[in-house]
Write the C-alpha cells for this entry.
Amino acid sequence: MAGFDKVVSSFEEALDGLKDNMTIIAGGFGLCGIPEGSIAQIKKSGVSGLTVVSNNCGVDGFGLGILLEDRQIKKMVSSYVGENALFEQQLLAGELEVELTPQGTLAEKMRAGGAGIPAFYTATGFGTPVAEGKEIREFDGRGYVLEESITGDFAIVKAWKADRYGNCVYRDTAMNFNPMAATAGKITVVEVEEIVEPGEIPPTQIHTPGIFVNRVIKGSFEKRIERRVTRSQEQ
C-alpha cells in the first residue's frame, strides 16, 4: 500500500512548505526527546518571523537555541526559559516576544488543539498575571481561567520508532510533550531512530496513530545532556 507510505528521505522534503511567519510546535523537554534534525533544517532554511511553541528554547548552541542565533524566532510560547543566555539577551532587548505559560496548561493547549477543542477552563494561573486579560468563570466556588488551545502550521516531533504508516512509539522521558505536539500540527513531521514495517508495532503499543502524522524521517541524534549533575565522591 505505497500510497500510505509516509517515509521521506531528506529533511528538505520533511520540512517542505516551511515559510516565514509560520507557527512551529516542537516536542521535547529541555534537550530530551527533541527533533534535532528538523531543528537543524529550519535553521538551514533561513526562514524567519517564526512563532515557536515548545516547553523551552533549548540552550545556547543546541536544540531550538540555534534558531535564536540568526533571529529566526519572533515569538516563543514556553513554560521554562532558564537555560539560554541568548534567549535572555533578546528578551531583555525587546527583540523576542515571550508568552510564558504554565507547563501543564501548555501541554493541554497542544492536546486540545489536536482534539479540535478551541478553549478550556483551568484553575492554573487564576489570581496571577497569567490570568490577566482572560475570561474568568467560577465553578463550584473556585475560579478558572479560559485558555485557548494551540495549533501550528508544522509540528516537529521526535519518536523512538515508527512504521511506514506513521504509527509512533516514544521511549521513556521522551514521551514529554511529543505526543501532544504530534496532534496539533497541520503538517506533522516525526523524526525517529528506527523505521519498521507496518504491523511490526503491536496496536496496543502505539502512542501516536499514523492518522496524525504526515511525514516520517530517520534521524541521527546526539542526545546531549542539558545539565549533568553528579554526586561528589565521598572522602
About this structure: The mean pLDDT is 93.
